[in-house]
């Protein structure tokens, strides 16, 4: 489904992630008339409410009780983590869907020391790839 600004986004993926997604699609035995990676059991596109429910279930499984969590929170996380990892705005704006740096401002948040350590650890891990 197109984003609200009707502009398609390209999400960069590693070869491994692409292979996993292709395998997931190949193993999907249900109807999938739209060629979607994730869809409802009857093949219709998922909606925000479906994705929010899946996110809350995943968080709960991880021991994080956030009954009001939405996938929109992930956009905040993505922009904040990208910024703190030193990724230039021009590099992450295509994924975030923000047309200007100012549009990303409300999504940038100050990280705690723990958050900065996590970004540093993730950056180090990604650099090994």
Keywords:
single chain, 129 residues, mainly alpha, 6 helices, 0% strand, globular
Account of the protein in words:
The two termini are 31 Å apart. 52% of the residues lie in helices and 0% in strands. With 129 residues, the protein is mainly alpha-helical. It has six helices and no strands. It has helices at 15-27, 48-61, 72-84, 89-96, 101-104, 113-127. The radius of gyration is 17 Å and the shape is globular. Helix 3 packs antiparallel against helix 4. The model has no long low-confidence stretch (mean pLDDT 86).
Number of helices: 6
Fraction of helical residues: 40-55%
Q: Mean of residue pLDDT? A: 86
Distance between the termini: 31 Å
Q: What structural category characterises the helix and strand content? A: mainly alpha
Gyration radius, rounded: 17 Å
Portion in beta strands:
under 5%
Spans where pLDDT lies below 50 across 5 or more residues: none
Number of strands: 0
Give, in order, the helices and strands: HHHHHH
Shape label: globular
Could you describe the largest sheet, including whether it forms a barrel?
A: none
């Amino acid at each position: 489904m197109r984003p609200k600004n009707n502009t398609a986004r390209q999400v960069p993926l590693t070869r491994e992630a692409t292979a996993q997604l292709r395998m997931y699609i190949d193993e999907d035995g249900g109807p999938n008339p739209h060629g979607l990676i994730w869809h409802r059991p009857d093949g219709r596109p998922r909606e925000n409410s479906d994705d929010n429910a899946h996110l809350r279930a995943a968080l709960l499984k991880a021991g994080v009780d956030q009954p009001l969590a939405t996938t929109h929170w992930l956009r905040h996380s993505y922009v904040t983590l990208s910024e703190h990892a030193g990724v230039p705005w021009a590099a992450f704006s295509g994924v975030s869907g923000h047309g200007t740096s100012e549009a990303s401002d409300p999504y940038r948040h100050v990280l705690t020391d723990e958050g900065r350590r996590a970004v540093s650890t993730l950056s180090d891990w990604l650099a090994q790839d």
